[in-house]
Amino acid sequence: MSRIIHPASTGRRGFLTGLGLSASLFSVRGLMAEQLADTKRILTPEMTEGPYYPDKMPLDTDNDLLIINDAITPAVGEISWVSGCVMNASGQPIRNATVEIWQCDSKSSYIHSRGRNENGLDGNFQGYGRYQTDSTGRYQFRTIKPVSYELNGMFRAPHIHFAVSRNGRRIFTTQMMVKGHADNTRDHVLGEIEDAAERNTILVDFLPVPGSPLGELTAKFDLIIGRTLEEGDDHKLLGGIGKSGARGFGGPPGRGPSPGRGAGGSPPPPPGGRPPGSPPPE
After folding, report:
1. Whole-structure pTM over 0.85, yes or no?
2. From the first residue on, what is the mean pLDDT of each consecutive set of 10 residues in the chain (282 residues)?
3. Which one-letter DSSP state was computed for residue 201?
4. CA angle, 138 as apex, 135 and 143 as ends, to 5°?
5. Cα separation values, 192 from 45, 48, 187, Å
6. Class of domain 14-225
7. Residue 260 in contact with residue 49, Cβ under 8 Å?
8. Domain map of the chain by residue range?
């Protein structure tokens, strides 16, 4: 059942301090990388960006997709905290990388002008957000649990699009999907990933947040990027978002063009990359 979040009385960003989830979702520095070091790392597969990367950015582009700026009406959907770590194949965190996500709303519509379902658009859903990873490669978003849709003759099981940029260059694009969802067997994009181990890396559990009065969910999605990432000549790591590689409408689904190609792009992320009210990195 879809739920509506009620903003905390402390205002636009009270949700972080009021619920205290930031600390619970992120534990000890480097813990995720250490856990992966004890297991065989499987690279997160690259997947198509698809045609619905925003053609016009929303008024708000932060990492809380449920509330737009200082609005008091939240988006409809199952409140979900999506978090994880961006790292390379050796388990080293990728810091100062910009993580972007975008997805359809509870009515199965994107904010892209050609991604609207006949049921309309939830004007209170941001539809897109970004976050700059900290020194341990961590990111987090508050959004809704994704839903299935059929748009422009294409069916998709629930998913959230992810893109990672570093030093103003798009370096990685993939999608996160809901583990165990009945519609996964019908999803042609997921079906393109033939290796079962790779496929499992993007299938994520949405689990209840213990004690949440709003029935919130949490989903942990680590991004393990296999390509070599080099710093600039001055060895500085900067923020910034690379150009979108979105394909046009009407083309084959496929995995899309290589990251970093195509037109588009967006303004730089907010300084610091962390939501106001959250504690500093440990």
Report:
1. no
2. 36 44 47 48 95 94 95 95 96 96 98 93 96 97 98 96 94 97 97 96 98 96 81 56 68 37 31 40 34
3. H
4. 145
5. 11, 10, 9
6. mainly beta
7. no
8. 14-225
